[in-house]
Amino acid sequence: MHIASDLQPRKQREMQNHHFDSTIWNNFQFRSDDIVIGTYAKSGTTWTQQIVGQLIFNGAEDVSVPEISPWLDLRVPPKEVKLAAMEAQTHRRFLKTHLPVDALVFSPQAKYIYIGRDGRDVLWSLYNHHANANEAFYAALNDAPGRVGERLERPPESIRDYYHDWLDRNGHPFWPFWENIQSWWNIRHLPNVMLVHFSALKADMPGEMRRIAAFLDIEIDEAKWPAIVEHCTFDYMKRHAAQSAPLGGIFWDGGAETFIHKGTNGRWRDVLSAEESEKYERLALENLGADCARWLATGVLSDVERHAA
Hints:
Organism: Hartmannibacter diazotrophicus
Shape: globular
Mean pLDDT: 91
CATH class: Alpha Beta
GO molecular function: sulfotransferase activity
Domain Sulfotransferase: 33-288
Protein name: Glycolipid sulfotransferase
Keywords: Transferase
Oligomer: single chain
């Protein structure tokens, strides 16, 4: 795989806060077949990790995604621990990031899968994640050594207030939303980058799984295909939530089943007024442009974009 040097993304900054320590990428030693799964967050990250894990391990029952596929730029546990664990892996490695492209060290050999989801659906899932976090969650993020900037506080009781704060302060209290989407959209034509959309996974998961397998150069064992697909369904992941949630779900009230929550879109429609919903759509258009905003909302690419892909 060859990427012209003028197209090769370059790391231009560090991002550090209660969650991030992007400096870990400066020391990560890539292998030529590494897989990096990226999202803003709550966009189908764990689902895609499950899909990739099932493709790599050919439908195995006991693949513990959080254990073998870490969020590399999460600042806990310490990066020395995480880097050593990744170096010790002998299977094809797959890991996740929530960083924008310009805060990553980008490998021209690795394969990158970026998953998009309508920001209103992201927000509803993010609120569940944040509101049901327990004291251990906040202690890990706020009190562990190395935090940069403000503490992460509990969310307001009103999800509507949460929504407006997140939009008005661009991703607060987590990290900027629009730049994350835009940075990956801008490199969508690179040969080692693939865009996937949450809605497309919902509409045709087996078809999207085959598309992912082809992108990763993984030959599907058709005899194991029914098991591979079954193990990536929401119902299966909910029943085996402890294998999907970080540390088995100990950071959330209700455990792993809270982390693997609904897996649905459109819950905001019953809460937001038309004006409140249009506020998001207006900001998406202003920050992303028409083609990217359309893709993020629907998973649909323009005719030009489909042809280029």
